[in-house]
Amino acid sequence: MLPPKTTFFAKRPLASLPNYTCFPHPAPRSKPPRLSLLADKCTSMHQLKQIQAQMIISGRIHDNFAASRLLSFAALSDSGDLDYALKLFSNTQEPNSFMWNTLIRAQASTPNPTESVHLYIKMRRLGVIPGKHTFPFLLKACSNLRSLECCKQVHTHVLKFCLELDLHVVNGLIRGYSSTDNLNDARQLFEEVSDRNLSIWTTMVCGYAQNYCSNEALLLFDRMILDGFEPNGPILASVLSACARSGCLDLGRRIHVFMDENGIEVGVILGTALVNMYLKNGAILMAQKCFDSMPERNIATWNAMICGLAVHGHAEGALNLFRKLESEQVVPNDITFVGVLSACCHAGLLDFGDKIFHSMRRVYGIEPKIEHYGCMVDLFGRGGRLLEAEELIKGMAWKTDVVIWGALLGACRNQGNIEIAERAVKEILVLEPHNHGVYVVLSNMYAEAGQWENVSRMRKMMKEGNLKKTPGWSFVDGHK
After folding, report:
1. What is the number of other CB atoms lying within 10 angstroms of the CB of residue 347?
2. pTM attached to this predicted model
3. DSSP summary character for residue 195
4. Alpha-carbon gap, residue 142 to 117, rounded angstroms
5. Torsion of Cα atoms, 179 then 184 then 186 then 187, to 10°
6. Roughly how many angstroms between the first and final C-alpha of the chain, as a whole number?
7. Cβ–Cβ contacts within 10 Å for residue 249, how many?
8. Tens digits of per-residue pLDDT, 239-264?
9. CA dihedral (416, 454, 456, 458) positive or negative
10. In Å, how far from its chain's centre is CA 226?
């Protein structure tokens, strides 16, 4: 019921009212922004923790929608913290499906995608119903795991929850089967989709390209064009990346021709993909031509060219390009220095490589990673400075692995230094006790040095440990 209307001010003129002192009305207070909206706008974990503190004080932390915004930033943002997101999740009483999906998505892209599958299993045991957004993230984990059994089990759940017609889910299934070399099931799913979108076409083409089926990839790409689908830049870049990984040069060239014929603008992303594709397939001149014709480049473009030239033994070209990068005041990153140090290894430029390595931290503020140490071990090894290489490994801030000790062992084999090789083998066996390859290398070194007693000892150790050398194999793409 509304209050009765008053006519007091309407009947009495303003001049007849008592002469009270008038105070200005205070400006209306603006409502504080919703904390969940602030969580969407934060740019660092420090800001997120401040927002979380306010949520705790105001009691909003128990609101799943508000808490889910915190979780999303911590789990998915580049400046987030997945471990912190997991703690937030574990302290949530009844996490909603969005929270589950967020963590499944985040874990799918980590070096250990198995955690994504474990989350889904836990989710189902607690009776939480998965939705159409759950399975694409879960299938991404299966793809990264390259687990056919995992894909099949998830496919069963997709059918159970009647999501087999959802295009995003089907796309995830096709990618999952393709990543596990099960192209027949992937193609069957593809053909069963009556209303395909561009993403599904691209996934199937990439599936063939990644599995070295260049003929099938070419035929399907042409069929996609005939069916009226014109791939855009990002999708073409995705296919070109698949060509780079698998060695499908013909498909990469076909895409380049398609781009020229249709006047598709070659921006930074697409241009970098072309450069990378040609370099990975050994087409150095075409890569250089694409690189030179690009009106704009980013550090990824420079890295693709420098690292590609270094890998193919064009050390001088890679180092000249690095000097050009510096002259154009482009800021290098850690990947740039992997390429430069690799070029130094190929050219045997020990002093220059040592100078570049120490300039990383001093000049550019880049902390050398294990890849850079590996390059330096290779460089010292080629120069015969094995003791310095060993000391460099021992002084690393990073945890050593088999690869870097293996690099030292390879250098010892080339230089015939048995003493350091024995120490390297000892370190490798601590990390991988059943690594049979090091026994073979050391045994061969003993044989070359005429130390037949040690050769017999190595063979006896291999026999007692039931260790056998794995036969080598190679793959040749016969497609022309």
Report:
1. 19
2. 0.69
3. S
4. 8
5. 130
6. 86
7. 21
8. 898 888 888 899 899 999 999 998 98
9. negative
10. 33
